[in-house]
Write a structure and sequence with these properties.
Number of helices: 10
Order of helices and strands: EEEHEEEEHEEEHEHEHEHEHEHEHEHE
Helix content: 10-25%
Radius of gyration: 20 Å
Oligomer: single chain
Low-confidence stretches: none
Number of domains: 2
Mean pLDDT: 96
Shape: globular
CATH topology of the largest domain: Quinone Oxidoreductase, Chain A, domain 1
């Protein structure tokens, strides 16, 4: 089969012929329909973040497809079924999994990191981790549910605990941040989207933002948010992964507010411990999505409470995968999510 293979950082991904994955009794082989293009992959390619599996490695962790083959022990899938493959695999037996926190499983495995991913014609996955994808959801565009939508869903539902009427500030309106906006709005949050791109802010309104702020056009972001909300946001969600924007997000909160960090950065942040203690502030991280949340998320996408196809702005054949990464690097204001189609 053909696959885009990662060998080393700062090198374009070559398209190579590699063996089709083998499957065990409890696995399925999926013919990949599409795989979303994510900043996580750029951390490996551009920034030298190491993968758990030593290269060569097939990247890609946001896939949909059809069942091509099932193991002898698989009963709930048959050849031709449309499926979604979550980005992260959990063991199901560690303390975290047994207490409902499978997304931080002690033995978690991630496609395109611990095991070969989906920038390929086929990918193997444990049947227990795969979900049926309803016909109402476009198969190719539906791939982005696996991460670009599921990660914001977990952040909003489980970590931010957004309730109807909460003032929610979202910093960053890229592929993940835009879905934070629309999921928070879908559950009743009054969302204020923050980005330095006016085009992205215009899109954010179409995905449910009640108000928008371009921080480059105001004196102080925190002051502007407090004016809009009458004292500060109940919840701030940072979806960029930059120490300055994480700190700025904290500065938008009212007393007793909650900051949720979705964006990844390896750098330290500086936040006042006195404010955390004296004003009873909360700071929470958010990683991925629990398997138990996927059925409800998929249903929300099926009934179009959450928009899926509208999020996919660019499509690339596998042979043009490096162009997809160039688009991601370029911060194109018209780009939300790209998919690669093997």
């Amino acid at each position: 089969m053909k696959a885009a293979v990662f060998h080393e950082p700062n090198t374009p991904l070559p398209i190579e012929d590699i063996p089709e994955p083998s499957i065990g009794n409890d696995d399925v082989l999926v013919k990949v329909a599409a795989c979303g293009v994510c900043h996580t992959d750029l951390h490996y390619i551009d920034h030298g973040v190491p993968t758990f599996k030593k290269p060569p490695l097939v990247l890609g962790h946001e896939a949909s497809g059809t069942i091509a083959k099932t193991g002898s022990g698989v009963k709930n899938f048959r050849e031709g079924d449309s499926v979604l493959i979550p980005a992260v695999l959990s063991c199901g037996t560690c303390d975290f999994c047994r207490t409902g926190r499978e997304n931080i499983c002690a033995s978690m495995r991630m496609f395109g990191n611990n095991v070969d991913g989906s920038y390929a014609e086929y990918v193997a996955a444990p049947a227990k981790d795969v979900f049926h994808l309803p016909s109402e959801i476009p198969l190719e565009e539906g791939s982005i549910i696996a991460d670009a939508i599921s990660t914001p869903f977990h952040a909003v539902k489980n970590r931010a605990e957004v309730k109807a009427g909460d003032n929610v500030v979202v910093l960053g309106c890229g592929g993940v941040g835009m879905n934070v906006v629309q999921v928070a709005a879908a559950v009743g949050g009054i969302v204020i989207a923050v980005d330095i791109s006016d085009k992205k802010l215009e899109l954010a309104r179409s995905f449910g933002a009640a108000a928008t702020v371009n921080p480059s056009k105001v004196d102080k972001l925190g002051k502007e948010i407090k004016k809009l909300t009458g004292g500060g946001a109940d919840i701030a969600i940072e979806a960029i992964g930059n120490p300055k924007t994480i700190e700025a997000a904290f500065g938008t909160l009212r007393k007793g507010g909650r900051l949720v960090v979705v964006g990844y950065t390896a750098d330290d942040i500086k936040i006042s411990a006195a404010k955390i203690m004296y004003f009873e502030m909360e700071i929470r991280g958010s990683l991925g999505c629990r398997p138990v949340d996927y059925p409800r998320l998929i249903e929300l996408c099926r009934v179009k409470k959450i928009k899926v196809a509208e999020q996919v702005t660019h499509r690339f054949p596998l042979e043009k995968i490096n162009d997809a990464f160039d688009l991601l690097r370029g911060h194109d204001d018209t780009a939300l999510r790209s998919i690669v189609i093997p």
